[in-house]
Amino acid sequence: PKTILLSEYTPPAYLVPSIDLEFRLDPHATRVTAVSRMERTADTPADAPLVLNGAGLKLVSVAIDGAPVGPDRWLQEEERLVIRKVPAAFELTVVTEIDPAGNTALEGLYLSNGIFCTQCEAEGFRKITYFPDRPDVMARYRTTIIGDPAVLPVMLSNGNPVADEIGEDGLRHITWEDPFPKPSYLFALVAGDLALCESPFTTMSGRDVSLRLYVEPRNADKCEHAMASLKKAMVWDEQAYGREYDLDIYMIVAVDDFNMGAMENKGLNVFNSKYILARPDTATDSDYGGIEAVVAHEYFHNWTGNRITCRDWFQLSLKEGLTVFREQQFVADHQSAAVSRIHDVRVLRAAQFPEDAGPTAHPVRPDSYIEISNFYTSTVYNKGAEVIRMLHTLIGPEAFARGMDLYFERHDGQAVTCEDFVRAHADANELDLGDFFRWYVQAGTPEVSVETRHDPESRSFELTFTQTLKPTPGQPVKKPMVIPVRTALIGADGAPLALRLANEAADAPEADQTERVLVLEDRVTRFTFADVAERPVPSLLRGFSAPVKLETRAEDADLAFLMGHDDDAFNRWEAAQTYAIRVIHRLIADAAAGRPLVLPADFRDAFARTIGDDSLDPALIAEALTLPGESYLAETMTRIDVEGITAARQFVRREIGRSLEGLLLEVFDRLAAEDAGKPYSFDPASVGRRSLANLCLAYLGAPGGTAGLERARRRFETADNMTDALGGLLVLADQEDALSQPAFDAFYARWKDEPLVVDKWFMVQATASRANALDHVLKLMEHPAFSMRNPNRVRSLIGAFAASNPRGFHEASGRGYDFLADQIITLDASNPQIAARLVGPFKRWRRYDDQRQALMRQALERIAARQGLSRDVYEMVSKSLA
Ligand code: HT7
Ligand code: ZN
After folding, report:
1. ipTM score over 0.85, yes or no
2. Whole-angstrom Cα distance, residue 658 to residue 664?
3. Are 253 and 359 contained in the same domain?
4. Nearest ligand (C-alpha, residue 837)
5. Are 226 and 278 in contact (CB under 8 A)?
């Protein structure tokens, strides 16, 4: 397959000011008539052919200005239609036929439970009609949908309805018009039997907007939270960015079969039902949080993505990184800011750091791809958001606001680049951000080490930072990055010191601040602080001010001190994580050397002090006491010791549960009593209490311990909300089959008609740490509720097992690897995007022991050897093996 290069970008030869689309809907033979106004650009030679993208289409006819064009004028290639001898400006009519029911890849027009829906990002529009399917061609769309109103009572497209009638054919003909020019990836159509949940909204300038949520009728009672989230997002974007909604209707449709989370089509979002549907008894706090975040994310795209879009797909982070950053700001403003930042960082470390260190590492703005769907990555999304956050930190909130205002003003209605975005900030503030742009073009996670030196005589304290950036595929040598390190120095009494740099005057305005942003611009950067009488404990990279790996030489006692005293809540959590990682590493080494495992008393005591501190927010206590995940622990080891990580982590869990049993029981019982009898509420305080209670339960019920089992069973059986029920089930799931199976059976019997809850049922079993995990998964693959056609189901069983059940997936025999390879091969024939995502767990194969390396490599080679692989899977597998 061909590699697409950023360096080969050329502007479009023909623009399309407007397009009229007509869809005559039929499950197997939908007829699409596309009438486009085409205009050759000034720089295009007169004999340049018109090149249109198209894939999997049955071409019925082509006409120019109403006159049929025969095959002598056009050439149908694999994914293109090339038409020769076209005028400078003309009307092109293309008629195609497509098969939505047979579309299992879920790109283009497809059917989900009888609902017609589209997914056009990134290159799905070419599966509907021949068109210049690239984001820098922006057209005004008018869409007519023709269908049987008895079967398809709801028929939607972008914009506003402008005509609606029953035709002579007895079918309904409805026409939608979108006044905003848009790229083809934002086109959407939905038709089906859907229930409507509607609510009004008045924008800041007083315009009335109708908010409409469409779901399958059986889900009409699960829309309230999504609607409330949408309104919150609309108000927030007005207040935080001055951005108002611009159409009269905002529609969201929830479907069960969807490759990703949601899609921001102009005025007509299509969502994976997982990110819309919620009722207290069916959705967890984490689901409620996910809905709030994703609804907001898609709404924010209306300005960052739709009004201003990407020039080409290499610029994907222009909209995605920025929109994730806006989503993170929104969530932080509505929940505990520290907890939301901890979540952001957990995601980054679990998903993006491994990507940056692996064979598919790429810059935030990639410079080449084979299949663009493979580049909807944690690097483009989450690291992209971190880059925007660093810009915000470096230039400050006021300058950032000026930069955003200029960006919106300068580029509204355009398709632009990441350079344009950074230039708007530079120009608005008269800054040179040239070196900062390296964050967009250099891959890899910088490693920053720090050395400290305190001189009591001169009362100075020195911090020397050294940064390194390892080679990544295609990038052997790197330049230093611009790294903002938010810093404080904590004095022995636990209070942060006033910070004066040695070269600053004592009365300098900054000199009494207790937090500074130190900017690293070279490989080695030194800062000296004055008036530091006693050795302080530095609190560095506060709030995780840059996506780097900070290697700290702090003593254990300093970490325990920061856990208790740092005034930056994020860094208190970070100290607990660093301490836990250290303890786990030592235990792994002890186990490998055959030494007995002992939980250090200081660590246990620091843990106990945090649990028992009633002045702290329960949500933060829960975060601080959640052990680092296995994926991140693996990332912290040069050679991943599968058994060592699992055993050491389990040991810590069990020992905490055993040694702090009394305290954990007391906290659990107090929290459970506080919430007893209260109706479910998704507010930060209630979420925090549930999360701490469930964490206590997890420690108490760690395999081997029995104290929490009875409470877990009771919680599972009596909870009135899914968060608590699942908290109980997760504890039971890790016990022997005689205890866990009855709980699984009861759960399924109760929830078998709720697909999103059945997904949880699959996921809990797929990730349970049991000796025979793979056998359970194989049995579940045969369960009538399992389907390879539904991406959520595939993710819940196969994806969850491979990514989050290290004990089962990395079984020494290699059976887990064979299983995953088989599933990737099978799925590639029906849904290449989902198949390619499943390659993920293989990517780190070079980091395991020799035997596992050989087995994983064999599995990858077996996939690579298959004839007819999709571009998606080919790219992931070949890059993993390279
Ligand atoms: N912008 C949306 C991307 C998306 C997507 C990409 C490839 C294949 C299927 C897809 N569904 C949605 C999602 C977002 O970031 O908002
Ligand atoms: Zn997005």
Report:
1. yes
2. 9
3. no
4. 1
5. yes
